[in-house]
Design brief:
Elements: E1 9-13, H1 18-33, E2 37-43, H2 44-53, H3 56-59, E3 66-71, H4 85-106, E4 114-118, H5 122-131, E5 135-139, H6 143-150, H7 152-157, H8 200-205, H9 208-211, E6 217-220, H10 224-237, E7 241-243, H11 247-257, H12 275-281, E8 288-292, H13 301-314, E9 317-321, H14 338-347, E10 348-351, H15 356-361, E11 365-370, H16 374-383, E12 387-389, H17 396-406, E13 410-412, H18 419-432, H19 434-452, H20 457-478
Parallel strand pairs: 1-2, 1-4, 2-3, 4-5, 5-6, 6-7, 8-9, 8-11, 9-10, 11-12, 12-13
Helix pairs in contact: 1-11, 4-5, 6-10, 13-14, 13-18
Bound molecules: uridine-5'-diphosphate-xylopyranose.
């Protein structure tokens, strides 16, 4: 009889939103490189979008153990999904949950060693428990923001919550252990401003502290050296944490080590305008401020004008990503003041979507005006680019506070959109305090790179994760 154990097979079930799916695909590829078989289970909607917009087919061709499967999310085809997240979440919880159970029970093509699911989908843990398969959780936000979620019950108990957006937002928050020194009301996730502890977001994220520890382990896209104080608090609640980030760079490092010539998984929702790289090539070192508010944030015409005047009046060079859908309302393009067009022609460059990782790695880039999305933050940290933060929503409010107060990697401009504040912040980052921020960013970038090299923290955590999954697989085969 053949005694060779079957290779470990993992079913990955991401939160069906662009960012988490991207991060999970990077993790999937890292696990494939580590010798695991992956069944990537997504909703039908995500399945269709991945095939339409990404290079997933070619990307995973070289991993025969990889397969992608899909189940319905229970919503009609024309539902806006991400834009009405609570409806999507409810449908997943009621309609997709039994389908996930059926899929895991059927095995989907052989014994399953474990499930890796987004912890927001707490029901995946119930299902895995029911069918007796070990589960690991993943969260694709910062440990700091996740720790704030863990602390929501304490925030309510202490009276720090509720408060409203028009209350005094500078009141210090004392009930998030380890963050007492710097956290204010305005730095909490944006939904905390609702003034209502029955707010559905608070209800949903309050479960994180009880849901996460139920899994065999929690996988985070961060690195120890960046978030050590928070991680040590979190391990009191959730002892087995694997910090394996920054995922984008970890994957690139592993691909380089395996001499794979495949391009990394494309993050892009829109076509990249690579002409900005040629423009950057003709700019002096560290002279350009890169401006991008990620894939979801929108601004009003008034806010757009404040940013534009702030940038032009700062006298600095800038490369600005203005997504086609990023300005609310119509006709704003026909009413651009001549001094802005002139200033942009002289020192600026505007694109609809940029190859961001490449841009941040470019020697001409010396700063990043960002919405503090977690991927953008990690990409900037990794490339040693100081930041000006203008957080838009959710976790970004927390991330931006850490950038300024904990990591000293830039300036947090949250809740202000005034041309003179923007101009001053840009001058500070790019001129007045340039050396100080660049020095600090360089130190943090070195530490990020060290975490990915052999023996480094993220490198070792990924090895340990793969070993732990293989051990679970051997147990599945024995049982
Ligand atoms: C955000 C948050 O990051 C996430 O934490 C939150 O919970 C949901 O919203 P997003 O706006 O997509 O998501 O921001 P971010 O996480 O920074 O991701 C944006 C990604 O798009 C980055 O990987 C970035 O490299 C890429 N990008 C952005 C481009 O490739 N080109 C661009 O022009 C702009």
């Amino acid at each position: 009889m053949d005694q060779t154990p079957a290779p470990a097979r993992v079913v990955m079930f991401p939160l069906p939103l662009q960012g988490p799916v991207n991060s999970m695909l990077k993790l999937a590829e890292l696990l494939c490189i580590g010798g695991l078989q992956i069944t990537f289970l997504v909703t039908d909607d995500i399945h269709a979008r991945l095939h339409r917009h990404s290079n997933i087919q070619t990307r995973f061709q070289s991993y025969p153990g990889f397969q992608i499967r899909s189940i319905p999310d229970g919503l009609p085809e024309n539902h806006p999904r991400g834009a009405k997240f609570m409806e999507l979440f409810e449908s997943l919880r009621t309609k997709t949950k039994p389908l996930l159970k059926e899929f895991l029970q059927s095995g989907g093509g052989g014994p399953i060693s474990c499930v890796i699911a987004d912890a927001v989908l707490g029901f995946a843990c119930d299902v895995a428990d029911d069918v007796g398969i070990p589960i690991f959780h993943v969260r694709t936000i910062s440990a700091a923001c996740l720790w704030v979620f863990f602390s929501l019950p304490m925030l309510i108990q202490s009276g720090d919550l509720p408060f409203k957006g028009d209350d005094d937002l500078d009141v210090p928050i004392k009930s998030v252990p380890g963050m007492e020194r710097y956290l204010r009301r305005r730095d909490l996730p944006s939904f905390c401003r609702s003034g209502d502890i029955a707010d559905p977001h608070i209800e949903m994220y309050k479960m994180e502290a009880t849901e996460n520890p139920r899994a065999s382990g929690l996988i985070l896209n961060t690195f120890e050296e960046l978030e050590a104080p928070i991680l040590s608090k979190m391990r009191n609640v959730c002892p087995n944490i694997y910090t394996i980030g920054p995922l984008h760079a970890h994957l690139k490092a592993k691909l380089a080590a395996t001499a794979s010539s495949l391009p990394a998984f494309s993050n892009s929702l829109w076509e990249e305008d690579r002409s900005c790289v040629a423009w950057l090539n003709s700019q002096p070192p560290k002279s350009v401020l890169y401006v991008s508010f990620g894939s979801l944030a929108t601004v009003t015409r008034d806010q757009l004008m404040e940013f534009w005047y702030g940038l032009v009046n700062s006298g600095q060079r800038f490369l600005w990503v203005m997504r086609p859908d990023s300005v609310d309302g119509k006709d704003w393009e026909s009413r651009i003041p001549v001094e802005l067009s002139q200033g942009t022609k002289e020192r600026g460059y505007v694109v609809g979507w940029a190859p961001q990782e490449e841009v941040l790695a470019h020697p001409a880039v010396g700063g990043f005006l960002t919405h503090s999305g977690w991927n953008s933050t990690l990409e900037s940290v990794y490339e040693g680019v100081p930041m000006i933060c203008w957080p838009y929503f959710l976790d970004q409010q927390v991330n931006s506070r850490l950038v300024e107060e904990e990591w000293k990697l830039g300036l947090d401009m949250k809740d202000s959109c005034d041309r003179s504040v923007i101009e001053e912040s840009v001058r500070n980052l790019m001129e007045v305090r340039k050396e100080e921020f660049l020095r600090r960013a360089d130190e943090m970038a070195k530490s990020a790179k060290a975490s990915l090299s052999e023996g480094g923290s993220s490198y070792s955590h990924l090895d340990r994760l793969i070993q732990d999954i293989k051990t679970k697989s051997a147990q599945v085969v024995r049982d």
